[in-house]
Amino acid sequence: MSMSTSAERDMAAYWDRAGQVWVEHQALLDRIMAPIGEAVVEAASLANGESVLDVGCGAGATTLAAAWRVGPTGRAVGVDISGALVELARRRAGEDGIEGAEFLLADAQTHAFAPSFDAIISRFGVMFFPDPVSAFANLRRALKPGGRLAFAAWRGPEENPLSQIPLRAAAPFLSEPPRFETEGPGRFAFADRDRVRGVLEASGWREIAVAPLDAASPLSFDELLTMSLRVGPLNPILKAADEDMRRKVGEAVATALAPHVREGVATMNSACWLVTAKV
């Protein structure tokens, strides 16, 4: 087995698990990320009748927003590696009666897309490629001449401080606390602006622009705890832990987050990059 194949299988297994969590909390996640998705769709300058590919489409919110933009004569295709998320996305498109949206269960790094798209978009779906240069070269081949790319990726953990608090609070109770990687695949893989630009240049893109994008989302304290314990990297650890460990970590995280809540509301700031490029 080659290293890339092993890494791809690891990522598929990861999203089998993570996809189930995202399905469970889809409404909350979509609400938090809505401003980011809107900014990505806006940056792609989608026109009526165009074809757009949404990479790492998750439960389909950004694909459906793109489908509205390109209209009934256009086509919006969402691709994701998680079967649970693709199934939910298809169900939502059917319930909303959106005919121009379709969803594909595939690995966007290696899937042989027909060169039929005017634009590629992604809301936090491109940081998980085991080989990002190969992946972005593959995506570039999916575009028609003159095609364009717009995506959002997280800036560093230090600029997203609410992501750090639960890990620090849980650390004394865990034999090996999770760490956010900024080199390999993961949430903060594209934290370094120069790395983003380097990956895109190496995979043949031009007119690359990387600009900061910040979006604030209000959350209740319970929603903040859900994001910290159920959606984030503590989730698989706590799932395997005993009840006493879960209680101790839950209490420690709640205590650490409490100062960030005012009158029952916490503000989660999503510090990202908004990236655009052309073929």
Automatic annotation (TrEMBL):
GO terms for biological process: methylation. Keywords: Methyltransferase, S-adenosyl-L-methionine, Transferase. PANTHER family: METHYLTRANSFERASE, UBIQUINONE BIOSYNTHESIS O-METHYLTRANSFERASE, MITOCHONDRIAL. GO terms for molecular function: methyltransferase activity. Residues 48-155 form the Methyltransferase domain. This is Methyltransferase domain-containing protein. InterPro entries: Methyltranfer_dom, SAM-dependent_MTases_sf.
